[in-house]
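Deliverable D2.4 — example input (C-alpha cells):
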C-alpha cells in the first residue's frame, strides 16, 4: 500500500466506515445464528458472543495492506 495513502485522512475515514459496517454485519450474523439455534432448541438462553468486541483491523487490513 502506498505510504502516503495510508495516512490520508479521507482514506482513514473510509477504512473506519468499512470496518464499522463489517463489524455490524458480523455481529448481526452471530446474533441471527444464535437466534436460529435458540429457536430450534426452544430456549431463550443466549451466549455473550454477540457482545464480543469486534476488531476486524487485524483480519482485513493486515500489515496495512
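Example output (designed residues):
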Amino acid at each position: 500500500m502506498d505510504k502516503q495513502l495510508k495516512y490520508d485522512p479521507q482514506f482513514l475515514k473510509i477504512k473506519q466506515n468499512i470496518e464499522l459496517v463489517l463489524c455490524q454485519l458480523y455481529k448481526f450474523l452471530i446474533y441471527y445464528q444464535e437466534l436460529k439455534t435458540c429457536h430450534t432448541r426452544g430456549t431463550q438462553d443466549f451466549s455473550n458472543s454477540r457482545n464480543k468486541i469486534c476488531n476486524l483491523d487485524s483480519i482485513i487490513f493486515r500489515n496495512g495492506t
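DSSP finds three helices and no strands in the chain.
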